[in-house]
C-alpha cells in the first residue's frame, strides 16, 4: 500500500487504547496503522503523542452577543487560534435572533465561515424565536443540511424561551434525532438579584458573581432535565459550573436519562476572586455562569474524573478589553452592561493535558475522550472525526508531552488583547496539527490557507448506553396515565 504521508515512531492514543504505531495517510484519510510504514512525506513523531485532533464543541465565533456586540474573533482568527490549540475542527454557534428565520441565519453564518475557517466546522443553531414556521419547516430543513444540534437559553431577555417553547423544540429535536443544548440558569432569580444589587449601588464587575447564584443554575438544570425527560430526548447542559448542578446531571445519568454535562476550564482554574481585580480588570473574568470558588473546583474535578461530564469545552466567547468589547458601554459600565464571556480556545486542551493528565487526575485516554471522541459521538461526527482508526479523517494532533510554556496572550493567535490564563505554567502542547491529512500547524507556524476548512454535515447522536424512558403519563401502555398498568 502507498501513502501520501506517514506519521512515524509516535505513541498513538484513542479514547480506549495507547499503543506504538505509525499512521499511514492517503487522500486525507487514515488508511493504515502499523509499524514500518513508509512514504515520501514523513513526520517524525518519536517521543511524541499522536492523538485525534481536538473538536472544540462550544465556542462563539463571529457571533453577536445577546447584548448586541460582535465577538472579537471571526472564523479566521478563531479557527487559527483553535488550530494552534490542537483542534482540527470546531462547532461554533449560529444564532437566530428574534424576528429572523433559521434558514436566513444559517446563510449568514455560511458567509462568515466558508471564506475564513482553516479547520472543518459545523454549527449548533441557537433558537430564540421558535415560531410555527421555524418548528415545522425551518428546523427540519436545518437538520437535513447537517445542523443536528439546537441550543436554547433559559435566561437573557433577548434570547430566553419559556418552558412551553422549550418542550416544542425538544419535540422537534426528538422527531429528527437532534441534540438540544441548554444554557440553564433561572432568569427570574438573576433579574431579582441584579435589581437588588443595583439598588444598593453595587455595579462593579465583582457583583456579577452574586447576581448569578449557584441555586439559579441548579433550579434551571433540574427543570431542563425534567423537560427533556418528559419528551425523552437528548439534552446537553452546557457550562455546568456548580456542585449542585453537576449532581443533578449525575443523578439524571444514573437513572439512564439522555442527559449530558459539559464543563469548561474557567470553572476549574479561575475563581470569583479574579472578578475583584483592581479597576475594571474584573470585566476580563466575567462569563455566565460566573466563576465560583476553590471548593467548587475540587468538586468539579471529581465529576470530571467520574464521568459526570461528557464534554470539556472552552466556551470561547471573546470580547477585547477595550471599547470594542468589554468596555463598549463605557470605561465604568455597570456589570449588567458588560459582555459576558472570555477567550480560551487555544488553551482548552493544554490546560487539561497539563493539569489533568500531567498531574495524574485523568488518564491520557480520558483526555482523548474529552478532547474529541465524546463530542464526535454526541454531535454526530464519529467515526469520521474524533478517533484514530482506519477510515477516519486524518485529523491528528501531535503532542510533545514534555514541552513547557508560560501562557501569554501573544501565543494565543486570536484577536484578543488578554488571556485570563496569563502566566500559568503548563507542560504538554500540540506541536503539529493536521486536518484531513494536511498540515495546518507545524513548527510554530500556520500552514493552512484561509477558507480551506470544510463544512461538516453532521449525523444524529450516538445514544448507546443512554436508554432513557417514557414517563408513565405518556406511555400508551397505561393509556396516557388514565389507568394504571396491570
Ligand atoms: N453563554 C455561553 O454559552 N457563552 C457565553 C455567555 C453565555 O451566556
Ligand atoms: Zn451559555
Ligand atoms: Zn457559550
UniProtKB/TrEMBL annotation:
CDD domains: D-HYD
Record PTM N6-carboxylysine, positions in chain: 151
One Gene Ontology term, aspect cellular component: cytosol
GO MF annotations in UniProt: hydrolase activity, acting on carbon-nitrogen (but not peptide) bonds, in cyclic amides; metal ion binding
Source species, domain of life: Bacteria
PTM entry text: Carbamylation allows a single lysine to coordinate two divalent metal cations.
Necessary cofactors: Zn(2+)
Lipid biosynthesis among keywords: no
Keyword field: Hydrolase, Metal-binding, Phosphoprotein
Residues covered by region (Disordered): 459-486
Protein name as it appears in the record: D-hydantoinase
Species of provenance: Albimonas donghaensis
Amino acid at each position: 500500500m502507498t501513502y501520501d504521508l506517514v506519521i512515524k515512531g509516535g505513541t498513538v492514543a484513542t479514547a480506549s487504547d495507547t499503543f506504538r504505531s505509525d499512521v499511514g495517510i492517503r487522500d486525507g484519510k487514515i488508511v493504515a496503522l502499523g509499524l514500518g510504514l513508509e512514504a515520501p512525506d514523513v513526520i517524525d513523531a518519536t517521543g511524541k503523542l499522536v492523538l485525534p485532533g481536538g473538536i472544540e464543541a462550544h465556542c462563539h465565533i463571529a457571533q453577536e452577543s445577546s447584548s448586541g456586540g460582535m465577538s472579537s474573533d471571526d472564523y479566521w482568527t478563531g479557527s487559527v487560534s483553535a488550530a494552534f490549540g490542537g483542534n482540527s475542527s470546531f462547532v461554533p454557534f449560529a444564532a437566530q435572533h428574534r424576528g429572523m428565520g433559521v434558514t436566513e441565519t444559517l446563510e449568514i453564518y455560511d458567509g462568515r465561515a466558508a471564506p475564513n475557517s482553516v479547520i472543518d466546522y459545523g454549527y449548533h443553531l441557537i433558537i430564540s424565536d421558535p415560531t410555527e414556521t421555524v418548528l415545522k419547516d425551518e428546523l427540519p430543513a436545518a437538520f437535513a443540511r447537517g445542523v443536528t444540534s439546537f441550543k436554547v437559553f433559559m435566561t437573557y431577555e433577548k434570547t430566553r424561551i419559556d418552558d412551553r417553547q422549550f418542550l416544542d423544540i425538544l419535540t422537534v429535536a426528538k422527531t429528527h434525532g437532534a441534540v438540544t443544548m441548554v444554557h440553564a440558569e433561572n432568569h427570574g432569580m438573576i433579574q431579582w438579584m441584579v435589581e437588588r444589587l443595583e439598588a444598593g449601588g453595587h455595579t462593579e464587575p465583582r457583583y456579577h458573581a452574586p447576581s448569578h447564584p449557584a441555586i439559579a443554575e441548579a433550579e434551571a438544570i433540574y427543570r431542563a432535565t425534567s423537560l427533556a425527560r418528559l419528551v425523552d430526548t437528548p439534552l446537553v447542559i452546557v457550562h455546568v459550573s456548580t456542585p449542585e448542578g453537576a449532581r443533578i446531571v449525575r443523578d439524571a445519568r444514573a437513572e439512564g436519562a439522555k442527559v449530558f454535562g459539559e464543563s469548561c476550564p474557567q470553572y476549574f482554574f479561575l475563581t470569583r476572586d479574579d472578578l475583584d481585580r483592581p479597576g475594571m480588570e474584573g470585566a476580563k473574568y466575567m462569563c455566565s455562569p460566573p466563576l465560583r470558588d476553590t471548593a467548587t473546583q475540587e468538586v468539579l474535578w471529581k465529576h470530571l474524573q467520574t464521568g459526570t461530564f461528557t464534554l470539556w469545552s472552552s466556551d470561547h466567547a471573546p470580547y477585547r478589553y477595550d471599547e470594542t468589547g468589554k468596555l463598549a458601554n463605557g470605561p465604568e459600565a455597570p456589570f449588567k452592561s458588560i459582555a459576558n464571556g472570555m477567550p480560551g480556545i487555544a488553551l482548552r486542551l493544554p490546560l487539561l493535558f497539563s493539569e489533568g493528565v500531567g498531574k495524574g487526575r485523568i488518564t491520557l485516554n480520558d483526555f482523548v475522550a474529552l478532547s474529541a471522541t465524546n463530542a464526535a459521538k454526541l454531535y454526530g461526527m464519529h467515526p469520521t472525526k474524533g478517533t484514530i482508526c482506519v477510515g477516519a479523517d486524518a485529523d491528528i494532533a501531535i503532542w510533545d508531552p514534555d514541552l513547557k510554556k508560560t501562557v501569554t496572550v501573544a501565543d494565543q493567535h486570536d484577536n484578543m488583547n488578554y488571556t485570563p490564563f496569563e502566566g500559568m505554567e503548563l507542560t504538554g502542547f500540540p506541536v503539529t496539527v493536521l486536518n484531513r491529512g494536511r498540515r495546518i500547524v507545524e513548527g510554530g507556524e500556520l500552514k493552512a490557507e484561509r477558507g480551506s476548512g470544510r463544512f461538516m454535515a453532521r449525523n444524529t447522536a450516538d445514544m448507546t448506553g443512554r436508554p432513557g424512558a417514557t414517563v408513565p403519563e405518556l406511555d400508551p401502555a397505561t393509556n396516557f396515565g388514565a389507568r394504571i398498568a396491570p
